[in-house]
Amino acid sequence: MKHDKKILIVTHSNDNQAVSKVIEHLNNQGLPTIRFNTDLFPTQITLASYQNEINEQILTTENGEQYNLADIGAIWYRRFHTGNDLPKDINKQLRHACFEESKRTLLGYFDALDVFKMDDYWTIRRASSKELQLIKAREIGVDIPDTLTSNCPVATQEFYHKHQGNIITKMQTAFAIYDDGKENVVFTNPVKESDLANLADLRFCPMQFQQTLAKELELRATVVGNKVFCIAIDSNKFQTENYDWRKKGSTTLEAWFPYQLPKKEEEKLIKLTKNLGLNYGAADYILTPKGELKFLEINPCGEFYWAEKYQKQEICAAIANHLASNITC
What we know:
By secondary structure, the protein is an alpha+beta fold. 27% of the residues lie in helices and 27% in strands. It folds into 3 domains: 6-118; 146-211, Dna Ligase, domain 1 (2-Layer Sandwich); 214-312, D-amino Acid Aminotransferase, Chain A, domain 1, CATH 3.30.470. It has helices spanning 18-28, 92-112, 121-127, 130-139, 153-162, 263-275, 305-311, 315-325; strands at 6-11, 33-37, 46-50, 56-60, 66-68, 72-77, 116-118, 147-150, 167-170, 176-179, 182-185, 189-190, 207-211, 217-224, 227-233, 257-258, 280-287, 293-299. Strands 16-15-14-17-18 form a 5-stranded antiparallel sheet, with helices on both faces. The chain has a 4-stranded parallel sheet with strand order 2-1-6-7, covered by helices on one side. A 4-stranded antiparallel sheet has the order 8-13-9-12, covered by helices on one side. α1 (18-28) packs across α8. The chain is globular.
């Protein structure tokens, strides 16, 4: 069946094969797509938005293809890397201004598109709040670990002793520290008693602390609409990754295996995702040796392709089908 409306895929030029797979599934359904590599805006991609008697927006891709944005019927918001292609030798202040104006221009144009979005940028930003996620999860009966987010040394020390020193710390944002040009990503780590002497440093940067959970398995449950795709890994087999398997994530890709999340937990996860205003989310859980399922977080734009590639989870098809079934005519 041929459709007049197109699916706009917001991504970047170095994204993985997930984008191509989703495009293939959409094209097989007769749905044309527009790949918007945001890292090439504003250097190679142009946008002309007219707000007058014409009221139209014309997008010209890096390949010279032109599209009227009135022809868009849905957006898959995958990745947002606006301004990454800006020349490095631009004055630092001017480069920042170029980046911010480019970002604001694209977000303004996405906001103006009154179509189905998976998901809306501002909804994603709000749903990314770890605090909000845990509150919403608890409200619908999802089990969560005891958690403290604080810049208060006294509260942190009390939390440490409450759990007999068995707590971990993690950041709410993903970032890396560079030492002599070497990238050191900040992962989840245990809190040692010697760390208590440095709690005054929290005045510079709040942190999140959680009780340490014994692990039988770690789970990644990906939600697409009303579908849940779940895989698991025995992270105890990777001793150095026991607190955070991502430290050597690429070496664990084939160690994951399909896992059936209990039906009631699936229903709760779908409800949580919708309560956060999302159509898509990648949630992390810990299954304890006692059979307790502990929800950790949900990433509104979480990666999933390794689950498709190595564990045969048909997530790309589910994304394409969800976009196709919700396209705004």
